[in-house]
Design a protein that fits this description.
The chain has a domain of 40 residues. The protein has three helices and no strands. With 79 residues, the chain is mainly alpha-helical. The longest helix is centred in the last third of the chain and has 18 residues. Helices cover 43% and strands 0% of the residues. It is elongated.
């Protein structure tokens, strides 16, 4: 039997296969944390005036922002 040719029989198909776009892997599904009321580290953009308002009372401003957001969420659930 004859040996197959070293070059592909269709150079256009070989070129397309070589430069075929790679599919990105799907992002992993993020499951919620098992423990309730666990805080997560996030990054958000807040208007400077809003940030100044919460920081003017000193340390604990992140807790105050969290409390304000919690009140809003709880109010929405009840209403």
């Amino acid at each position: 039997m004859a040996t197959p040719p070293r070059r592909p029989t269709n150079p256009m198909a070989a070129a397309e296969a070589a430069f075929k776009p790679i599919k990105k892997p799907a992002a992993p599904i993020r499951e919620p944390s098992a423990a309730p009321n666990v805080r997560e580290l996030v990054s958000i953009r807040i208007d400077r005036a809003v940030l100044d308002h919460f920081q003017e009372d000193g340390p604990g401003w992140q807790d105050r922002i969290n409390d304000a957001l919690r009140q809003m969420v709880d109010g929405k659930r009840q209403g």
